[in-house]
Amino acid sequence: MKSSFPISLLAWLCLTACGFAKAPNFLFILADDQSWNGTSVRMMPQEAASGSRVFKTPNLEKLAAQGMTFAQAYSAHCKCECSRAAMQMGRTTTSLNAPDKNARNWSAPVTDSLANTLKRANGSYRAAHYGKWQWFHTPQSMGYDASDGITMNEDGDSPNPEDPKQSFGITRRAKAFMEEQVKGGHPFYLQLSYYAVHQTPQALAATLKKYEGLQGGGGRGDRAVMAAMTEDLDTCIGEVLKKLDELGIAENTVVIYTSDNGGRTGFLNGGKGDLGEGGLREPLIVRGPGIKGGTHCATPVISYDIMPTVLDYAVPGFPMPKGTEGGSWKALLSSGGREPVRRPIDRFVWHQTVEVEHPQSAIRRGDYKLLYFWDTKEGLLFDLAHDMCETRDAAKQQPQIAAQLEAELKAHVRAGLGEPAYAALERGEFAQGGRPMGKGKGKGKGKGK
Description:
This protein is an alpha/beta fold. The protein has helices at 4-21, 58-66, 80-89, 114-121, 167-184, 205-209, 222-247, 277-280, 306-314, 330-334, 399-417, 419-427; strands at residues 25-31, 68-70, 73-74, 126-131, 146-147, 188-193, 253-259, 284-287, 295-297, 301-302, 348-352, 360-365, 368-373, 378-383, 430-432, 435-437. The strands form four sheets. The protein has an eight-stranded mixed β-sheet, with helices on one face. A four-stranded antiparallel β-sheet has the order 11-12-13-14, with helices on one face. Strands 3-10 form a two-stranded parallel sheet. The N and C termini lie far apart (74 Å).
């Protein structure tokens, strides 16, 4: 019996090592400000308005044919900084106490970030982040072994005509990192936070030439450059995916493509900066082991689910940091969209009170979404299953649901931001860029289609 212990221990270590050796890689591609219909991939197959006929993204079309496309994918916030913080930390911006870009007193330590947690779960992982960062915490402190450091929007405005929006440079660094990890025998988590398609638009001259004559500025206006910039981004995505094939790791790599927030769609209500569906819904495509190609999913998901999804694929059963609010998509993805996503609290909450005409919060539970304005004390209730464009307020028809969601929303904001901040909201005291802001007089702009 005594001699069997070392043998059993050795066997366990060997099995563990084999499991780690087969650990999947993760490629997370994050576009900047890309709207729900900002690609040529329809997020809803039967809805023409859920994809673009102008922007050409053939590599994303190929990715969608190989994976799952989501009709109801949400960003964690309607602005980039807060959304990116939530993705790194696996929780809502209110629970993180990061409700705006000036937030400094986060309620969770950076040691609980996605990359740090992944490396605690399996120390063989290496992590890299290239592109836009936008926060005061360094990528290194949040677990990234390689990065471009702390970068902001303006860093994406490239002076090099051969590298518009830094997209091609980011792509080159990504390919070199993947090659290095494969040679070293390390599984990896790689996040590419492209500056495209954020303003100011830039594109290769050759790509822009394809869109000459596009309505707006005689082919040289923003619309043409936006279309060309989108195609350049898609070209870079194609290069990264091709590198996975060349390295022989495509079959063991989970690829996630999405945006940091939504934008104007000409279809959904609102856009970037507010909590209408336009500002929150975003494109989402996921490809990976066990995911059937060409599938579509109508289950609502949110970007702070990415952290538990990565951990569930990498080290199933590894405990998530206390306070994590997201849930894993693994069962949903492997079941063709049939299995539910299980979260500690199955609701989505958003909060936006700066750089917006009317300070607002929103909550979605099931098919119902309540959009609440703090200045007017008005709550609008929408049944998204029958009114995805948020054109009909159902609060009077469903007063109990509206009241329940409003109470739940306020309790969540209160718990996350603390009593003083919550009391200020209730008193109508808001900050706009750090300055006092007076009360508004009604609903925000952009209602309806």
